[in-house]
Amino acid sequence: MITPKKCPICGKPAVEKFRPFCSSRCADVDLNRWFTGAYVIPARDDEPFPENGLPDADEDENF
């Protein structure tokens, strides 16, 4: 048996119109979290970062 997907914000069953959310309110809550920086991609502080902010030339050889 397939269980219906749940809203990632409140856990209620998702509604097709607002999928993957249950309502426009939960969709707006999620959007606000993106805008305010609540969602971030983790990074390590010890990763080398070039001073010019661009990747090294050898890293771009695949493009």
From TrEMBL:
Cofactor: how and how many bound: Binds 1 zinc ion.
- Top-rank taxon of the source lineage equals Bacteria
Q: Which cofactor does it need?
A: Zn(2+)
State the Pfam families in the record. YacG
The alphabetized list of GO BP terms reads: regulation of DNA-templated transcription
Where is region (Disordered) located?
Answer: 43-63
What positions does the entry give for Zn(2+) binding? C7, C10, C22, C26
**Do you know which InterPro entries this protein is assigned to?**
DNA_gyrase_inhibitor_YacG (IPR005584), Znf_NHR/GATA (IPR013088)
Keywords on record: Metal-binding, Zinc
Q: Name one GO molecular function term.
A: zinc ion binding
This chain's function reads: Inhibits all the catalytic activities of DNA gyrase by preventing its interaction with DNA. Acts by binding directly to the C-terminal domain of GyrB, which probably disrupts DNA binding by the gyrase.
Q: How does it assemble?
A: Interacts with GyrB.
Task: State the NCBIfam families in the record.
Answer: PRK01343.1 (NF002362)
Q: Name the family.
A: Belongs to the DNA gyrase inhibitor YacG family.
Q: What is this protein called?
A: DNA gyrase inhibitor YacG
